[in-house]
Structure formats: C-alpha cells, structure tokens
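<amino_acid_chain>
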Amino acid sequence: MISLEISRWGYQAGRDVLKGINWELDPGKVYILSGENGCGKSTLLKLMAGVLPAGTAKIETGGIAMHYLAQDPAQSLLGIVPAEDLEIWKLVLPELDIDKVKRELRYPELLDTPYTRLSSGMLRTAAQLCLPYLMDKFWLLDEPFAGLDDQDRERLLRLVIKKQDAGSGALIVSHEAFLKEQLGAECLHLEKL
C-alpha cells in the first residue's frame, strides 16, 4: 500500500500548496489525479517520487519501486538525442531492446533528432519510450497525454490498460475526461488552496 499523509506542505513557510491529504493507494490500481491548474498535482507527484523534500509530509511506499515522468518531458531526458537516452536506460534495464523500440516507433527518425528540434508531442513520446520496460514499477505520470496526437494517445492508453490488466498501478495527473471512462480508474481530486 502507498500511504500519503500530508497535513500541510508548501515551498515556503506559511504558504501551503497541499493540505489535508490522507490517502491509501493500492499499488495494483490506476488512479487519475485531477484539479485546477496550480492546485498541487505536479507537486504531489514530485513529493511521491522524492524529487522534493517531504518535510512534514509522510509518504510511505512500502518499498514499491516508482517511476516518475515529469510534466515537462525535457526533465526526464538526459542526452542530446533520444537514442542516447535509450543507451543510458539500457544500463539499468538490460532487457531494453533498442532495435525493437526503433521498429515499433511511428517516427524512427525521432531517435536521431536533437531534442531542441522535436515538437512537444514528440518530446513526450521520447520521454515515454522506456515505459513498456517499466511495467513492474508504480508510474507517476504528469499530464502524459498532453501534446500527443491521436495515434500516440491511443498507443499510450493501450499501454496503461495493459499495465492495469497486469495488476500494476499508476497515478496519472490529467485533465482528460476520456481517461476515467476508458480506464474505469478511481479519480482523486485536489482543490486549490
């Protein structure tokens, strides 16, 4: 079980971003996290991923491995071109089949295109290339469908459904109404303070 107990948390003393969260998340379920812009959705994911200091927030993962994919895909990318990132990922994911990734890409030229020349949707696609190899991790996805065209949205949706069917969970920040219907996922909502 993933336990979140946040009585109050803020970037600065006296300016709370998150307050009154007491959630138990089943690591085998997919959840949709919604709320208006600026209510702390991305902040919550960063706290869960350990990117931000927890401070007084209590976040217990029970040893569950997590994978965080930032809202800004560039934050998840290290190389100059996506092919370099795949080589880096191969160091920690020996089962990563780079040739298979290339064959399955709609735009294989994406792998050798500098990140500075990719559209926002292609950046997001590049950041998501390793997700099929991280099915056993609890995913923390921040607006993963934003900027994707219909085909890439469908590809990602199929991957999330496959993950869900395998009993592996995720917390997905999204404003996309279709996700709740398509996934039958439990919805969590944050209010802006």
User: Anything to note?
Assistant: The two ends are 27 Å apart (CA to CA). The helical segments are 41-49, 82-92, 98-104, 120-127, 150-165, 177-183. Strands lie at 2-9, 18-25, 30-34, 58-60, 66-69, 138-142, 170-173, 186-189.
